[in-house]
Design goal:
Length: about 220
């Protein structure tokens, strides 16, 4: 296989970020979370970074074309010669269309879209159970990684709280945005036979193993 151009898809709390980092190590490909790309473009003062900064400074959302442009800058560089892993983009069907058009311009295409799926209940359980220490941000989980003493950080003894991001109503809002805007992408990519489903409800090691098997299958398909 010449290139492995991957998109990671999935609800918040599906473990996408963790798996993305593992994949990055396994495959030795650049892993880009969209927020990082925009921040890097702004920091490096690339042309698109300057445009993006104008929007951000005004408190406006950065338009899709600008984000796609910033991603294209990275894709069209030596570091992505063998492929890339995108996380957090595309988030909507129009973004996916813009990405496809840009890739075509570059003579490339996506190899696969990996959907790491998790139910709303599972997401609620994972994100809603997190407790963060106020002093140093150490993270615990009431079910999966409980502190020795309830409400107290094992490491520095400071108070454990529910971060604003982990409040049930905030999680519910992120989930409803995901269902409304991002979920249509599943069908979009399934139509193009790019979608591969992975059960994100399993333990992280099992998810990583399933990802590995999926990628191995892609390689076999490509050899034929
Ligand atoms: Zn702490």
């Amino acid at each position: 296989m010449n290139e492995l151009n991957l998109v990671l898809l999935g609800p918040p709390g599906s473990g996408k970020g963790t798996q993305g980092e593992r994949l990055q190590e396994d495959l030795d490909l650049p892993y880009w979370a969209t927020g990082d790309i925009l921040r890097a473009a702004v920091r490096d003062e690339t042309e698109l970074g300057k445009v993006a900064k104008e929007y951000m400074d005004r408190g406006d959302l950065v338009p899709d074309e600008v984000i796609v442009g910033a991603i294209a800058e990275r894709i069209d560089s030596a570091e992505a010669a063998d492929g890339f892993i995108l996380d957090g983009f595309p988030r909507t069907v129009p973004q996916a269309e813009a990405l496809a058009a840009k890739l075509e311009e570059l003579g490339r295409a996506l190899t696969a879209v990996l959907l790491i799926d998790a139910s709303d209940e599972e997401v609620m359980r994972r994100l809603g159970g997190r407790r963060t220490c106020v002093e140093n941000g150490h993270v615990f989980h009431i079910e999966f990684n409980p502190p020795e003493k309830q409400g107290v950080c094992d490491i520095d003894g400071s108070e454990l709280v529910v971060r604003d991001d982990d409040e049930p109503e905030v999680i519910a809002h992120r989930l409803s945005t995901y269902h409304e805007k991002t979920e249509p992408l599943i069908e979009f990519y399934d139509h193009q036979s790019l979608l591969r489903r992975i059960d994100g409800g399993a333990a992280p090691d099992a998810v990583a193993e399933e990802l590995r098997r999926t990628l191995a299958t892609l390689k076999i398909e490509d050899d034929f």
